[in-house]
Design goal:
With 204 residues, the chain is an alpha+beta fold. The chain has 2 domains: 107 residues, Alpha-Beta Plaits (2-Layer Sandwich); 80 residues, ACT domain (Alpha-Beta Plaits). It is 29% helix and 39% strand. It is built from 5 helices and 10 strands; from the N terminus they run βββαββααββαβββα. Strands 1, 2, 3, 4, 5, 6, 7, 8, 9 and 10 form a 10-stranded antiparallel sheet that branches. A hairpin with a 4-residue loop joins strand 2 and strand 3. Helix 1 runs antiparallel to helix 2 and helix 1 packs antiparallel against helix 4. The longest helix is centred in the middle third of the chain and has 16 residues.
C-alpha cells in the first residue's frame, strides 16, 4: 500500500480544488484537480504548469462531468524531488491559471520554457467512432513536454476534449487516448479527421 508522506491542498471558490499527495519517498506524486467550469484548453493549462516545473506525467485520467473537470495525474520529477516550497508554488500557479487564465506562452516564457513538438516520426494514429463519440488513439515514443504539445495542438484547432487517458504502454513509449466532446461534429467528417492526422504526423 502506498504511503502518503504529505498532502498539499489549495481550494478556491472560483478556480477549484487542487491537491498534491506526495508518496514513494517523495519520488512520486498524485495531482488531483476538480475545477469548474470545464474549458477546451483545460488540459493545455494543466500540462503547461507541470512542464514548467519539470514534472513528467506517467499517467493521467482526465474527465469532464456536468461541465466540471475531475482530473488525476500520476507524476514524477525529471531529476531530484523538488523541495516542498516549490510544490506549494506549483499549486499556487495552478490556482492562478484557473482563476484568471493568462497566456500559456507568456506563462512558460516567465519560467524559461517553450513548447516543442517532438518530430520523432514514430507516431501512429487510430480513429474510432462509437455511440456518437469520436476518439483518437496515439502511440509513439515518449518525449518531455509531449502532453503539452498535444494539448496545445487541440487548443489551437479548438477541439473540446471530453476524456483523456495518458499512459505508458512500455518503457519509453506512450499509448494516449483522446475522446472528444459529442458537440465536435467536425470530427464526423472523414476528410477533417485526415487533416488532423496529417498535421499531427508532421508535428510528432
Amino acid at each position: 500500500m502506498t504511503q502518503v508522506l504529505e498532502r498539499l491542498r489549495r481550494e478556491d471558490p472560483e478556480a477549484g480544488i487542487f491537491e498534491l499527495a506526495i508518496d514513494d519517498g517523495g519520488n512520486r506524486c498524485t495531482l488531483s484537480v476538480t475545477a469548474r467550469p470545464d474549458q477546451p484548453e483545460t488540459l493545455y493549462l494543466l500540462s503547461a504548469v507541470l512542464y514548467s516545473y519539470d514534472w513528467i506525467i506517467e499517467s493521467a485520467w482526465i474527465t469532464a462531468v456536468s461541465g466540471q473537470i475531475e482530473d488525476r495525474f500520476r507524476i514524477r520529477p525529471v531529476a531530484e524531488t523538488p523541495p516542498i516550497g516549490q510544490m506549494r508554488e506549483m499549486l499556487d500557479d495552478l490556482e492562478r491559471m484557473f482563476s484568471s487564465p493568462v497566456s500559456v506562452l507568456r506563462f512558460l516564457n516567465t519560467k524559461g520554457k517553450t513548447i516543442r513538438y517532438p518530430c520523432t516520426g514514430s507516431a501512429t494514429f487510430a480513429w474510432q467512432i462509437r455511440d456518437g463519440l469520436v476518439s483518437l488513439e496515439i502511440q509513439m515514443l515518449d518525449q518531455p513536454g509531449l502532453a503539452l504539445a498535444l494539448s496545445h495542438f487541440f487548443a489551437l484547432v479548438e477541439l473540446d476534449l471530453l476524456e483523456v487517458r495518458l499512459a505508458e504502454s512500455t518503457p519509453g513509449k506512450v499509448d494516449d487516448l483522446f475522446v472528444f466532446n459529442p458537440s465536435e461534429s467536425r470530427l464526423l467528417d472523414e476528410r477533417f479527421r485526415e487533416r488532423i492526422t496529417d498535421a499531427l504526423s508532421i508535428l510528432l
